Every structure is written in C-alpha cells, then in structure tokens.
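Box S1 | Example of a co-folding query
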Amino acid sequence: MLNTKQNQRYIVGVDLGGTNIVCGAMPEDGSRQIAIQSQPTFAEQGADSVVDRIARAVEDVIALTMAETGATRSDFVGVGIGAPGPLDRERGLVVTAPNLGWKDFPLRAHLADRVGLPATLDNDANCATLGEWWVGAARGGRHVVGLTIGTGIGGGLILDGQLYHGASDVAGEIGHTTIDSTGRRCKCGNYGCLEAYCSGPAIAERAREALFGTEDGVSILGQLAGGPERITAQTVYEAAQQGDPIARDVVRETARLLGAGIANLVNVFNPDVVVVAGGVTQAGDALFEPLRAEVRRRAFKPAVDACRIVPGALPGTAGVVGAVATFKAQMERQRRGTRDEGRGVATEGAGLAR
Ligand SMILES: [Zn+2]
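Box S1 (continued) | Returned holo structure for zinc ion
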C-alpha cells in the first residue's frame, strides 16, 4: 500500500462559493480525490479574510495528502481555483461576484503568493463541467454541455474537447438564456431567464405559488416543509416522491422548462452529452424522464439521437475535481507552448485570406 508512485504529482482544487469553500487534492492522473474538506466562506468578513481561509485550507489539504500518500511538498504542482464569475482569466481577476461582494479582485495572484504555488482561475460552473467530463458522468464525450443547478444555474461548454470561454470569458451562462421573453424577472435584470424558473429557490417559489389558494392546506408538501414559507426545492422532490400531486406538477413543470432550455442547447451545440448536476439531481427519474421526453419533442432528431442527458456523478465535488482539471489543462496548454498557438493563428489567418 505504501509504494508511492514515483513521479506522481498532485494538484490542489478549490471551489469557492458564496456559502462554502470546498478544497481537496488529486493526483495528476485523476485517479482519486484526497482530503476533500468544506468550510464556511464567511464572505462578510472581507476578501483578505477569505483568501486567508482558502490558503489555510490549501495547506491543510497538502499536509493531509502528504501524510496519506507519502508525497513531498515538491510533488504539488499548483492550485486550480473555481470561483463565481464573471472573471478575467488572463489577469486572474474576479470581476464581479455579488455573493462575495467582490469587484476586480486579483484572487489568483493573492492565493499563489500565499501558498507559493502557481494557480489558475476559472468559472465555477466551467470547472464543474470539466470535472464531470474528466472523471464523472460526461466521460468520453467530445462536445459537452454542463448545467449546475443550485442557488442559481451555472453552465459550462466543452467543444471539441476543450472548455469554451468565448470572446470575454462569458460563454456558458446557460442560466441566463431566455425561455420566456415576457416572463419572470431574473436577478440579472433580464426577464424570463431559465434560472428564474429552475434554480432551487425558483422551484421552491413556484411550489409555494402552486400551494397558495389550494383548498387543501394539509398537503404532504406543506407538512414536509413545516409550513409553505419553509418549502425548499428538496422538500418539493421529497413530496413528489411521496405522491403529492402539487409537488409532482411542479417537478413536471420544471422538467418541461428545463427540457425547453436544453433543447435549445442541443440544437445549437449538437453535444454528445448534457450533464445536469447540483441539488436538482435528487429529483431523480421523476425529473429526468419527462425532461428527456421534452428535449425529444423539441430538438432535431439526429441531435437528440446523438446526445445522452445524464445526472452528474460527482455530487459535492465536481467543482473541486474540475478546478484540478482546469489547472492541469492550462498547464498542458502552456507546456505545448506559444509555438502551436502561433501556428493556429497563422492557419486561421490563411483561411480568412482565401
Ligand atoms: Zn438572468
């Protein structure tokens, strides 16, 4: 058991959220997750204090990994960070993060300084998608659309085997695609965003509205939650499993709306995998079966036939695994060097000239 693989190197992953910081390590080959731990972010204490907590968590993870694997500190090549966007990846900035109260914060440089290792920064939902692709439910895909449904709806795109960032790192904001042009107001300011209907809080809100005005005040849904005002997405899924008709309707409606949103993505990107992760996967087949049916009704058949729609396989750790994966991917791109990149640009230029 103690035969430490020669030259096995390790990467630390950090998944920074508004509520929790999740941190852990993986060997470069992605074969396992080590020393995964979670702690509160305490964003209200300010950015420096958050960086402090992340740095200490990274040191803890390194120490635990060394104890468990016999690795030495020099076997750790760097830290991948997933953070809520929008980000400026080139400069390593969190541009704005309402949940953290940050603006143009140089997270990557601060953390790299503190832990003395190179660091990379990418959007948390991009990381989750890359994690599912590397070692989770989207393995083997070449074109992957990822949705992470929790407090909000994050998205990530892998096109031709690479995370796609777009012109200014905004690509993949699936939660803020419009599914009803005159619909509910979204936190982003737009109307009718997918997130305004299918995020955890939005699902709970729709359930409360459905319950309101019904004669039967003693539905399973209301009882489970301990009052309509305490309904969460999770109680909706539980009540649906127990046969509550209102909760079942809400889950079916969620499947219909998500299905419409995903059908758009299937027609645009023609992915081989759509992976849906986050709390919503607890709804299970009650959600996924009608969701797949809705996509089948709406999208082109060859696109639907080529695509599997699956729940995420890394509950709670997709972000950390993906942060590790983004570090690895960025290092590999750097290793291949600017020579290839230059050639790519030249080829494109030649194509344009023709
Ligand atoms: Zn929005």
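The pocket of zinc ion is lined by residues 176, 186, 188, 190, 193, 195 (CB under 6 Å). The longest helix spans residues 318-353.
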